[in-house]
Amino acid sequence: KVIQSATADDSILTLPSDSTVLRVSGFDHMQGDSVYTWNKVLGPGAVTITPNGTSATASTVQFDGTPGAYQFEVTMSDSRGFTEVDETVTVFVVNDGEVDDDPPLPTQASFAVAPAADSETAISMTAVTGIDVTGPVEYLFSEITGNPGATSSNWQTSPTYTDGGLSPLTQYAYMVTMRDSLGNTGTASAAVSATTPGTPPA
After folding, report:
1. At CA 94, angle to CA 9 and CA 20, rounded to 5?
2. Which of 15, 72, 124, 145 could form a Cys-Cys staple with 162, CB 3.0–4.6 A?
3. Is 5 exposed, middle or buried (0-12, 13-18, 19+ CB in 10 A)?
4. Roughly how many angstroms between the first and final C-alpha of the chain, as a whole number?
5. What is the pLDDT of residues 36-80, one digit of tens each?
6. Distances in whole angstroms, Cα of residue 107 to Cα of each of 34, 36, 180, 194
7. Phi/psi zone of residue 22: left (φ > 0), alpha (ψ -120 to 50 degrees), beta?
């Protein structure tokens, strides 16, 4: 089973609009029956999702009018008990005219792929993708040891960064921070270290 896509018709709802349609597309290699189950995994208010736990690929989510960021997780399963890895969808519910003063989610950045050496002179990393009602989300990768060749990134929209021009057999450490287009900045990640390979001197 493969979930090919999961989306919302409206990723930003401005109250009094309080509902949207969640859609999922999946493929079953065994040509079996497919059941899609949506769950709210993040959000301050109550929601109702209909239909849910059926073969329907479109479900309406009704919000109770509480502003905030909501994340929904969909699972694809079948009568044989096989379950596909979940996919998530984010919907923002905002008041009309409200100014966004919240940083991207998650509020503390982290690494999806931890810093690791590509070669004797380069280390690459990827941040967990941030979401925000006022996009695009930008990422700042900071190298904190100051060891030879180390370079922090500028603010960038790509969640992936490669630090080149490093020295072999040297440890480096990185943190990542996210902000939205209004400058709302979240908490930096924990520092993660990586060491470039090389041949020790004889």
Report:
1. 20
2. 124
3. exposed
4. 54
5. 999 999 899 999 999 999 989 999 999 999 998 899 999 988 767
6. 35, 29, 11, 24
7. beta
| Strand order across the 138-143 sheet | 138-143, 171-179, 192-195
Query: Where is mean pLDDT largest: 1-10, 29-38, 84-93, 169-178?
Result: 169-178
CB 73 within 8 A of CB 86: yes
